[in-house]
Amino acid sequence: MTGPAVPLARPDFGEEEVEAVRAVLASGWVAGQGPKSRDLEERWADRCGTQHAVAVSNCTAALHLALLSLGVEPGDEVLVADYTYPATGHSVLFCGAKPIFVDVLAETGTLDPRQLEAAVTPATRGVVAVDVFGQPADYGAIERFCTDRGLFLVEDAACSMGATYGGRAAGNLGDVACFSLHARKGISSGEGGVLVTDRGDIADSVRKRSCFGVESAFARQQATKLPIPVFDELGYNYKLSDILAAIAIVQLGRLDELMARRVAIATRYSTLLAEIPGITPPTTAEGRTHVWQAYVVTVDEPLDRDRIALDLRSRGIECGFGTYASHLQPVYRTDRACPASATLLRRHLALPMHTGLTDDDVRHVVATLSAAVESHLQRIA
Ligand SMILES: *Cc1c(COP(=O)(O)O)cnc(C)c1O
Fold it and tell me: Global pTM?
């Protein structure tokens, strides 16, 4: 190993988060849907510019409840962007419905709107677009497509808190959006999720289904009578603990600071990488801002992505593939082809991206990558 290991990802917590946990433990309310969760929801909706927000246990739970509340049932089909963490496809299966995977654009890895039409059948209910690595999808075209056909649009914004499309905030780009607070995202509470929407009926339904199908204990505590809850529909236990909500409130307050650091690192990477043959830096499409949940380059032919990655690892730099080509996962039992997505799975290389990286770290990663590429090109020649 040359020098210290550079990790791929690392959350950014400080004294403020520790203090928030101390305070919520002392308060006595540590379960979900308590005062801290309510506070987080208000601040989150405010930041996204949506009417409602509901804090839940993770983004996968948010996606599940979003689809249920939009009426997805067994027998339905939902068009899902193929290049994503399989939580997106799983949430459709949770409803007993079928995910129909739609191919993506090579440049951004986001849903290719031109591929939607051919995937529609009479069973299609809606579309789930994914803001891959922190860049919003092509919502102008996707929204038009959904509106014309009466389909719902869900934004998988797991990675894109703080990003924008045409000046609109991520979260405000479909009927419902789902965010993640997992350790690997831009802001985090370890695990966690937030669903946002302008539709009051969806927010109410999601809140109830996240708490077994009844009003939360905190809401009941505020009632004047002694209410005995009635279970009139099946719900889940998808609440976010108030301990985690307290951490998320601090992280949300630091969003601009943390985002600015990631943008600066990405800019530095892209400038330095422009010099290296065989490596294509990521692109941000016109009219969008990217929050760089991950910094993912394309390793061009004839270089072998896997060999480059193993080479970097052996030199103390953690790296990985981009994300998954869902249609290739056996759990989905599909024979649909998504060639662009399959190519990204083979050619994408995620480089270290987190706020703890120094400018020297970035220079070291790029120099090491450059050396690896050079030695591989020599071996091929
Ligand atoms: C991380 C991620 C999820 C899942 O988020 P969890 O909070 O871990 O459930 C869903 N979709 C995408 C695109 C993700 O990156």
Answer: 0.97
